Amino acid sequence: MSTVRQRGLSLRLRLALSYAGFLLVAGGILLAGVVLLLVNYLPAGSLQTIEGEYSPGRRDLVEAALPWFLRGLLFLLVVGLAGGWVLAGRMLRPLDPIDRAVRAAAEGSLSHRIRLPGSDDELRRLADGFDEMLSRLEASFEEQRRFTANASHELRTPLAVTKAMLEVARSDPDGIDARTIDRLDETNERSIAIIEALLALARIDRGTLATQQVDLEQVVAAAVDEVPHQVALTCRTVPATVAGDPVLLHQLVTNLVRNAVIHNRTDGAFVDVVLARHGDRLRLTVENSGPDIPADVVGTLTEPFVRLASRTSDAGRGSGLGLAIVTSICRVHHADLALRPRAGGGLVVTVDW
């Protein structure tokens, strides 16, 4: 809700009045100083010369200079107002495109950019900062739009399956068998997994991180033991501690290992988990032998509901939010997440602290 403000003087007029007032005060002080300097060297009264004529005294000079003094102040006022108005207009001209961009953004258009030309100064930095803010907002709203659309699709699919199976069961109550019950249970579990992942992602993005020293070697070992797998899974670690939330770090490693196990091939499959020192940083690497992944697809895998096969397919093999949650956990822990395709097929994920 916008605030209704009482209309006042424009910024340009206020700058012009300020410039004129400053010029008027400075000019008045200068003229007064000149007059006082001249008056100081004149006697208080009129002097009579040898020829009998009178020369002007201090009072005569003051009376003669006062009208010109007032005319000078009036001239300075007019020049100050006119000059201040022109100068203020030139100085404030870059604010016009900024104002148009702000109004366009207020109306919902985030694609407009100011791109203010000129050298680097306060107004240009303000315009560049506003352009950067608009770019981030546009990207954020686009991401939220895709997220909402994908989440709706992900939740609609299992609910539609459940509805269809319930309608079939209602039409033929005696035909309900164990397979139908198992299918309903599987579909329900998928819906629960998606909702829980969405809630986890929301909590991570809005929560504050309570950090403590976490034994990362123990976290990795526990996560590897926890994830069920039917592939050759190897784990190599070194003693290491990082500052962070132990629950979130455990979820990070678990999601990476589970993702590597799920997205794998049937023959010769393996998952390799390595925690090691890399220079002055600590690096966790999770590598698997999955399918070939195009390089342009790897960059999209951290988006919500993006899977290796397709964006919203492959029901029952995960919520599609595993790497999105990992990305959020890395962000709140100030860790660097990198993904690259593995030569021969698969994915290599590294997290650097």
Structure at a glance:
InterPro entries: HAMP_dom, HATPase_C_sf, HATPase_dom, His_kinase_dom, HisK_dim/P_dom, HisK_dim/P_sf, TCS_sensor_his_kinase. The chain is of the alpha+beta class and 353 residues long.
Structure overview:
The structure is a single chain. The protein folds into 3 domains: 11-46 and 53-122, no CATH class; 151-206; 212-352, Histidine kinase-like ATPase, C-terminal domain (Heat Shock Protein 90, 2-Layer Sandwich). 56% of the residues lie in helices and 13% in strands. The protein has 9 helices and 9 strands. The strands form 3 sheets. It has a 5-stranded mixed beta sheet with strand order 4-6-7-9-8. A two-stranded antiparallel sheet has the order 1-2. A two-stranded antiparallel ribbon has the order 3-5. A hairpin with a 5-residue loop joins β1 and β2. α5 (178-206) packs parallel to α9, α6 (216-226) packs across α7 and α7 packs antiparallel against α9 (322-332). The protein starts with 10 loop residues before the first helix and ends with a strand.
Q: What global shape is seen?
A: elongated
How many structural domains in the coordinates? 3
Named at the architecture level, the CATH assignment of the largest domain is 2-Layer Sandwich
Extended strand count: 9
Transmembrane segments: 21-42, 68-88
Catalytic activity: ATP + protein L-histidine = ADP + protein N-phospho-L-histidine
Domain Histidine kinase: 150-353
GO molecular function, one term: kinase activity
